[in-house]
Each structure stands twice: as C-alpha cells, then as structure tokens.
Write a structure and sequence with these properties.
Blueprint lengths: L1 H6 L2 H19 L7 H30 L4 H31 L21 H6 L6 H7 L2 H17 L5 H22 L2 H15 L9 H26 L4 H18 L2 H14 L5 H14 L2 H17 L6 H16 L7 H12 L4 H12 L2 H26 L5 H5 L5
Helix pairs in contact: 2-9, 2-11, 3-7, 3-8, 3-9, 3-12, 3-13, 4-10, 4-13, 4-14, 4-15, 4-18, 10-14, 10-18, 11-12, 11-18, 12-13, 12-18, 13-18, 14-15, 14-16, 14-18, 15-16, 16-17
C-alpha cells in the first residue's frame, strides 16, 4: 500500500489530502484542532529550508551566469512585470467590487472590532534591502537583505576568478543538497495539508463564507480571472508557451500555497517546480522567486481593493473616480509591504481604507467582521501570489536566455 501511495503523482496526493481534510474537518468540528500540530510541523519543515535554499541557490546562480552585468537587466524586467501584474490585479478587484457591490446591505453591527496593524512604510521596506548584519538577516528571514548580500557575494566570486572557485563549488553543492532536502520534505506535504485543511474546515468552516457570500464570490471570481486571463495570456501571447503546460508544472506549488496560506513557506516548492517542471534556470529562479515572495502580491492587491470598496459600500461612503485611483496607488504600496504569512494583508488593508476616509473605528469593525472567514479567502489569494511569481519567473527566464524549453514541454506525470 505504501509503495502504491508514493507511485501516485504528488499533486494528486495533495489534492486527495485537501478533499479528505475538508470532509474530516466538517465531520469532526472543533476536534480537528487537535491534529493542527501535524500541519504546523510541515510548515516548520519547509520554513526550515527556505533561508539556506534561497541563499546558496542565489549565490550559485549568479556565479553560473558568468556576467554580472546581466543582473541589471534581469532586475529591471522582474520589477517592471511585477508592478504591471499587480496593477492589473487591482483593476480587476475594483471592477468586480463596483459591479457586484459586496458591501451593499451588509450589517456590521455584530462585528467585534479587531486591533489593526500599521502598514510598513515603503521607505522602511527599502532600507531593509541593505542588512546591518547579514547573519542576522539570515536568522530573521529578511529576504530582501538575504537577496542583496547573496548577490554581492556571487558577484564578488565572479570578479576574483579562480581564487573564489572553492567557495563557488561549495555553494553549488549546497544548492543541490538543499533541493534534495526539499524533495524529501515535500513527501510529507499530503499529511501536512490534510491536517491544516481539516483544522480550517473544522474550526472556521466553509459555511462562514455564507455571511458575506457576495464578497467571497467576488474574491473567488477575481482570483480565477487574474490567473487565467493575465498569467494564461502571458504564457500564450507573450511567451508563445502552453498555458496548460504552465499550470501543470506549477500545480504542486499552487496546492501547497493554498493549504499553507504563506508565500514564504511555499518558496522551496516554487523553486523546485520552477527548475524541474518549468525549465527556469537557477539564476532566475533563485532571484525572481524570493523577490516575488516579498513584493509580488497580486492576490493580496486584488483582495485589498475589493475589501476597501466593500467597507466603503457597507458604511455608505460614495467613492469618486479619484478615490478609486487612491485605492489603486495605496494598494500597490501595501502589497509591496505585505509579509508572506497568513492573513497579513487583511490587517495591512487598514492603510488603504484609511486613505479613502474610513475612520479607525470603522476599519477595526471591518477587520473584525472579515477576519472570521478570512482564512479560506487567504488560501485563494496566496495561490494567486505564488502563481504570479512562477509566471513572471518564466517570462524573465525567457527574455534573459535562462529558459530550457525542453524541460517546460516535457510531459509531466499526471
């Protein structure tokens, strides 16, 4: 039986775990919280490998590039595409909120106000790029600082030539070792996914979405539309690649993102499928994906835009065209400052709601109201975030000549 289980494709095992988790959670109810520790252990395992994986693969990737000048072109294209896809996500979210009007007729009187967190200022976010202590950045999981230091180290190894070869070889071996550990950890994914989904289904319940079914549908439709229309179009019309093949290659990462609700925790899986399924070479995968887990939040941007309009509609605040422009601009900044952890964007949406005249007291009520059923929606938007990271990585790899078409087109075990 064990042999048969491991012969099944990983994405199928994860999907089976998702379905079983929902069923068990609904039947078990609050008791499902007793197995949440299994899911937490899985998340700890993948968090354990994130930082060393990002560091060694990025240094190794820069060294394998051979020409440091390519980094400038790679970085500019990455940031440019990330900003465009985020803006499109915001527009989709705002259009759906205006058309579906999820906040009209909603009664927030029974909501318990929730303390909200301040959004991280963009200037502070930019300062984090240069770590005061690189070792501390590694210990704290500061991805921007890790990326900056790893790039410097990789470029320095290129400039010193043969003297840097021993360290470069060590980084390359470390990259292979970390990818192997990632594969081992991923074999535990079905157990972790089952426990996490059972806990969510049992303690929070999908039925909680019935309280704001219009808002939930708006987010669901927006997420599906963004993934299919935007990233599917990038594959088909920009890169002349098969969207179906892309989604097949990315599905393991999308399912893990859905179950963990964390872009950062999904990063090792994203890097693995990027290289093995999508043909993205290490120099791009190890640069674009960690950066995306930090600043590319398409699903978050879409969600924050919808929730902001929802709040305005619920409190009877009429929004002008200029207000929608303010929402779009502030949402872009908030999405850049969002931590890749569960429900972080809900609290950071306070900055966006405040920009259109919603009072702190009203914001606290909205956050308290939405928080009850936020987890299922967080799972959706995290999948969108991770899909966007992989889509942009595929595009940049194509443009930079760091893409293996044969790997991308290779049949993937169904």
């Amino acid at each position: 039986m064990l042999g048969i289980w491991f012969e099944i494709a990983l994405w199928k095992r994860i999907l089976i775990a998702l379905v079983l988790g929902v069923i068990v959670g609904m039947l078990w109810g609050e008791g499902a919280a007793s197995i949440k520790w299994i899911g937490d252990l899985f998340v700890r395992l993948i968090r354990m490998i994130v930082v060393p994986l990002v560091f060694v693969t990025l240094v190794s990737g820069v060294v394998s590039m051979g020409d440091p000048s390519k980094l400038g072109s790679l970085g500019a294209k990455t940031l440019g595409v990330y900003m465009v896809t985020t803006l499109v996500a915001i527009v989709i979210g705002l259009l759906l909120a205006v058309i579906m009007q999820p906040g009209v007729g909603v009664n927030l009187s029974g909501a318990v106000p929730e303390q909200v967190q301040e959004a991280i200022p963009l200037s502070e976010r930019m300062m984090d790029i240069v770590p005061i202590n690189p070792i501390a950045a590694l210990a704290e999981g500061n991805f921007l600082g890790i990326i900056f230091f790893a790039l410097l180290l990789g470029v320095s190894l290129l400039t010193i030539g043969e003297k840097g070869k021993p360290l470069a070889d060590l980084m390359e071996a470390g990259s292979e070792a970390m990818l192997r550990i990632t594969h081992w950890v991923m074999e535990t994914a079905p157990l972790g996914v089952f426990a996490l989904i059972a806990w969510v289904s049992g303690t929070q319940g999908v039925t909680a979405l019935l309280d704001v079914i219009t808002l939930a549908f708006a987010v669901l439709i927006g997420c599906i539309a963004h993934v299919l229309l935007v990233h599917g179009s990038i594959m088909r019309f920009v890169l002349n690649l098969s969207p179906v093949q892309f989604f097949r290659g990315a599905r393991d990462a999308m399912l893990v993102a859905f179950s963990t609700s964390s872009s950062s925790a999904t990063l090792p899986v994203s890097m693995s499928v990027a290289e093995e399924n999508l043909g993205i070479k290490p120099v791009v995968a190890s640069t674009v994906l960690p950066l995306g887990a930090t600043i590319n939040m398409d699903g978050t941007a879409l969600y924050v835009g919808i929730v902001s309009v929802f709040a305005a509609q619920a409190f009877g605040i009429d929004l002008s065209l200029a207000d929608y422009g303010v929402i779009a601009g502030s949402t872009t900044l908030v999405s850049i400052g969002t931590a890749g952890v569960p429900s972080a964007s809900l609290f950071l949406s306070a900055a966006v709601m405040g920009s259109i005249g919603i009072t702190p007291e009203q914001i606290a009520v909205v956050v308290g109201f939405v928080l009850v059923f936020d987890r299922p929606l967080d799972m959706l938007r995290t999948s969108v975030n991770v899909t966007g990271d992989l889509s942009v990585s595929t595009a940049v790899a194509n443009w930079e000549g760091e893409f293996d078409r044969e790997i991308f087109d290779r049949p993937i075990k169904f």
